[in-house]
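Re: beginner question about structure tokens

> Can someone show what the tokenized structure looks like for a real chain? I only ever see the sequence side.

Sure, here's an example I had lying around. Input first:
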Amino acid sequence: MLSLKYVEGAKPGQPIKRKKSESETKDDAKKRWKDYEQKRVDRSFNYEWQIGRPWLKFDKEKGVITCSACINVYGTSGSGGSNLKGKNAFITGSTNMKKSSITDHENSTSHVNAISREKAKHSTPVQQAKSVAGKTLLSMKASEKHRIACLFRAAHGLGKQGRPLRDFTWLCDVNEANGVDLGKTYRNPKSALVFLSYIADAERDKTTKLTNTAPAYSLLMDGTTDLSGDEQECVYIRAALNGKIIERFAGIGSPKSTCSKDLKEFVDGAIGALKLNKDKMIGLGSDGASNMVGSKGGLATLLKQDIGEHFVNVHCFSHRLGLAFRDAVKKNKLYEKLMTLLIGVYYFYTKQYKNKKGLMSAFEVIKVKPHMPPKVTGTRWLPHMKQGIAVLLRNFNAYNTHMSDASHTNAKAEGLVKIMLDKHVLTFALFMQKLLEPLCNLQEKLQRQDITLAHAMAWIETTMELVMSLETRYCNLHLLSA
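And the corresponding structure tokens:
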């Protein structure tokens, strides 16, 4: 019996081809490659391969192909991050004149990285910003810049409000609780001091630039004492630039003493620290103290001798107005009584808690909004006195109610209520209220930054007319009260 077998694809009269094994297939491929290599013509470099490949270089003398990008990035040793097996042939020089070898090298990771790094070296700032790495770096820089800016603003706020630097830590904690990312560094008082020093340097440079740009400048100077009792002199710079008046803080410090020579040394030091041109200084504005405006040895006289005859000393208009008012009324007995009343009422109710509670009860009885008496002996004489008189007239009924009741057991209350109920004092207080209104308005205008001499003279003449118009009214009130 014949054994028959079905073979797929078999045809009658044709022998069946046996499928070669894997080893036989490889052997045949090697044989064909060997025959091809023996018969082929020697390969040469095709210069068309360089089209679109500016990094591809060919050395005719050595007969090798190199990659300029990989050589520049990885050097000539073949080490430096290449992922090719053995040495990077395109760094040392490849003799394989096949396009496939160039394509393999072109697609290698090391070559792609080398091309990216070469582009980054020769790219413009705009191209760098548009790249992925550039965008990531800018994003990181923007985030860090925002953090530092928030820290700078926090330190600046503490300095401007006169708060201690130890508050910087909790202020950062508050900002972070409000959703502001401040990071974990630079959140201590020492860093706050560094921030303030950089802010001061920036403002100092800005002051120097603006002042040296202006054709001329003058100084504003005044002194005070700090909590420890040391003298502190404050210097400002005033100049005109492009038709606008600018005022900049120049410095504050403690001179050796308040004599004019030591003050001049202090001014020279402040100007020298800012690197200002002293020849451009044309004037000094100050109060009327003898060490400032003295005709023989005052600070203004010393500066005039040092700079030139064109130097002008200006006594502060607002300060002169206050002095003129004090000189005009200081010998008036009614003024003395009125000041005694205002000062006495202030200390009567602010220094003794029992009197303050009694005054608050009086406010509740007469149903008047409470206003505590202000201090009228401050440096701003006109505004302080105006406010004190206004509060006195507003609280007259409450003062009268409480002090009249307290006068039975308190001699001070008895004396104050006696002055307060004097019709001459009340008439004088009403007159002073009307007089101080235009004077305070004038003083406020004289302190404006954009004031000019023409404006000051016009405001002074207008105020004089208003003051003279009160003369007849005051005389009539005085006669009626008599």
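Each token stands for a local structural state, so reading them left to right follows the chain. The radius of gyration is 46 Å.
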